[in-house]
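Protein Entry — a single chain follows
Next Lines — sequence and tokenised fold
***
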Amino acid sequence: MTAPGAANQLQAFEAPTGPTQDLTAYFRSTANGQPAYLSQAISSRAGQQEWRLVVQSKAGGPVQLSWPNVSTVPRSVAFRLVDPTNGQAIDLRAKNSIVYNAAPNSTREFRVQTVQAATVGPAITNVMISPGQVAARQPVTARFNLDMDATVTVKVLNSRGAEVAVVRNGEFVSRGANSAAWDLRDGSGNVIAPGSYQLEIVAGSNGQSSRKVTTFSVAR
């Protein structure tokens, strides 16, 4: 471009600023003995496998990782996401995303692992229920253990098996000790009458589910 009044003088303009990328995710691997950074990792090798997923955040703040297409993978193959920073392992079929807080200019590494698909549902054990009391508005508290991560639904049923209230509805919980509390109200928000009730716990993982029903009482 020729500047006005100045022949043969060129005026250079700065190039436009390109888009910035605050978040980068890739699989860390090796190729020919050298480090490699992959956007996807494909393997036909049988047996248990593991991939290292690296997430880099420039700005920091909440970061969400999701895997919406895991349902397209055959049921004979199961995956889990392991976070080495806290030891948490997540069944990718039981939960479709996680959110964590990243520090500015930070790097976090996860492990994606194949695991043997379950042939039976999660084991629900050590169910203990503390009875409630209507007059004192004392809630019913249930405690139970799971032998694997699972999606859990907890319901209160009456003595005939009809649903009274849903306490936890399809929530992802980790293996180990868990709990649920019922505020003595039915699905419409009304305080229930004293009497005998049932607590139903249904836990599912990798297409398999287990059910446990325990009877308890609510005092006046």
